[in-house]
Amino acid sequence: MLSVRSRRRKVLVAEYDGQLAGFAIAYRYRRLAYIDSIAVKPECRSMGVGSRLLAYLEDELRRDGAEVVALSVKDSNKRALDFYLRNGYQLRGIVLIMSAPVEALPARASDAFTLKRRQAGVLRSSKFKPSTWWSSLTEPVDRLVYRKYPVEEALLAYKGRRLRGVAEFSLDDELYVDYMALSSYSALEALKALLVGLRQVGLEQGARAVVIPIDASKRLIVENLLANGLRTVGTEYLSVKELV
């Protein structure tokens, strides 16, 4: 992460007694910013490290021109949610964590679509609509990271010669799709084609399940994922704070 430089990303570290105590990572584009993570070592918690990291990060983002900052908190992390609410953040939305066993995904899509498997970050379109709000901020930096460190792969869905959808994923015992974007044209067809491709990859690699985060506000996509075998297994709270 640190070796790939970008003006869109800011990384802060906190030290205590000469040792790394915590870090924060944020992304900014124009007036919008997204805090990807704030982490503090267990032995340094309850010492104000997280509060100082957050305050310093917000000041830095404000100086860079950000007016609104957002973040997401897992539903299981109520302590973190309380922390951000105390620091002026308000709930603005829900991110659904949807999952399905690999074999439960559709096995066949429209014959009009073809799939290609590529290294992540090679090909994306700014005209596509990402599945999560923060992807519009993190995507340009991720693209640089994946070009230098090919730790993720991508599935590209074509209808004829036109790219209609992309899904980038990491693979462990689960196939985690951390970026998915669809064209406004044939979006639901492209989604099904990507699910078929993810099923094929998951079966080949022995993955147990496929996991896809998606903004709850994307109603048609959510309904289509439900219809194709995925279920909600968790949620994240999208929280927002105005910096001006």
CATH first level of the largest domain = Alpha Beta
The stretches of 5 or more residues where confidence is low (pLDDT under 50) are none
Within CATH, the superfamily of the largest domain carries the name Gcn5-related N-acetyltransferase (GNAT)
Report the mean per-residue pLDDT as an integer. 88
- The secondary structure category is alpha+beta
Radius of gyration: 19 Å
Order of helices and strands: EEEHEHEEEHEEEHEHE
* CATH arch. level architecture of the largest domain: 3-Layer(aba) Sandwich
Oligomeric state, counting identical vs distinct chains: single chain
What profile does the largest beta sheet have?
Answer: 12 strands, mixed
* Amount of helix: 25-40%
Inertia-based shape: elongated
